[in-house]
């Protein structure tokens, strides 16, 4: 592994088959040679701007082909890539800009207003705001003119395996996002492990519509396919018919999705017609538990789904159910470690292993485990204590080593592919002048895995509707964090000491939502 730069997966594929199509986005496509030239222009341009190895480059970009150029171009020249959730609003982005301290921020004309507002209203380290599809202006630089003026030759710099490659933000126990620091070894090894598990080759083609800022997309799709010279077909946004059509037209052999996408595909009126035209070799589902009815319905029409488990702190993939014909796929299980190099166990509260069948906290160690949380040494020490990554998820293992996720020690809500921390929403709700008490919990949902419910007690003399509060949350937070349901109470349940408690709320809501 000495000297491996993640961006070299593109360079290696250029040497092997330069004219093979690497990326198809909407109606455009790029060979590995063309993709490499585009990433080289970014690398050269960053050096021209004075970017040094270890500097941070934040990507506030929607799904677009330029995401690929920036991701690999940044890594090529030794800078640290910081993919950002493009659904964030000013408050969320401001926190990350302050915490990550990027030197360059990249955005697009469609979403430039949020980063522009953030940079105007706070002290920051950003020296250039570069806009895809934008023109040069007083406080920004147009991407196209800038990149087209750069050279197309660049060899990825030599990095050490433990050099920082990426910072991805995920929710934390305090409600503040945490910057997960992933090394070149973390990203390279996990992409390699995913490719080995799936037996992926340069002949494989995957259609995907996941958000490109997500670790699932960056490692389990792009990393996995590019490390062997495969092809990815990416959609700007998910549309069931466009997705099914892309799989049929491009003769996809692989599909990487989450439960909500599989559910939408299954409910397309012509799904049976498409199923006869599509011949997938393997299908992956992850990021949230896929309900058994969706698994069963998909397996009846397409290649059986292999469900897995991962988390950003593990770069992200840890478990997968075996491919069809390669082992037993067990219902309600997220499978077994994808490679022997990833060690797992279930620990009790004293960090001692529990017996098979007993519930304990999932712990992980291996080359995919993060180096820590940015600017959070105490949380890093707690999470990585004794050489193990403590996930906060409660699991059990059967006698065959298959893992079953039972619950979370934390209050995190897993809604589709997103992790939501209730405290962040609760803190916002308390800023509303009509709210006296607020608690946010997750309830089971067939499609999303979990949905968000806000439980509210209003101040005397105030009146609000469910839609009022949902709209308030959507105006101030990324849409996926906003509650789907609001339930009003005269007062919320409390402990004997007067502290708000969620156990009673969960019991009440489970009676309603099942």
Quick summary of this structure?
The protein has 514 residues and is α/β, with parallel strands linked by helices. The chain is built from 16 helices and 26 strands. The strands form six sheets. The protein has a nine-stranded mixed sheet, sandwiched between helices. Strands 4-3-5-6-7 form a five-stranded parallel sheet.
Could you explain the architecture of this structure?
Helix 1 runs antiparallel to helix 2 (32-48), helix 2 (32-48) packs across helix 3 (65-76) and helix 4 crosses helix 5 (113-120). With 514 residues, the protein is an alpha/beta fold. It has three domains: 8-237, 3-Layer(aba) Sandwich (Rossmann fold), CATH 3.40.50; 305-408, Luciferase, Domain 3 (Luciferase, domain 3, Roll), CATH 2.30.38.10; 420-513, 2-Layer Sandwich (GMP Synthetase, Chain A, domain 3). The chain is 32% helix and 26% strand. The model has no long low-confidence stretch (mean pLDDT 92). The N and C termini lie far apart (49 Å). Strands 2-1-11-10-12-13-14-15-16 form a nine-stranded mixed sheet, with helices on both faces.
- The side-by-side strand order for the widest beta sheet comes to 2-1-11-10-12-13-14-15-16
Shape assignment:
globular
Number of domains: 3
Note the main sheet.
9 strands, mixed
Kindly name the structural category.
alpha/beta
Average predicted local confidence, pLDDT:
92
| Unreliable sequence segments | none
Q: Class of the largest domain, according to the CATH hierarchy? A: Alpha Beta
Please estimate the helix content. Answer: 25-40%
Radius of gyration (CA) equals 23 Å
Give the N-to-C terminal Cα separation: 49 Å
Question: What proportion of the residues form beta strands (DSSP E)?
Answer: 25-35%
Number of strands: 26
CATH architecture of the largest domain: 3-Layer(aba) Sandwich
The fold-level CATH name of the largest domain is: Rossmann fold
User: Counting H and I runs of at least 4 residues, what is the number of helices?
Assistant: 16
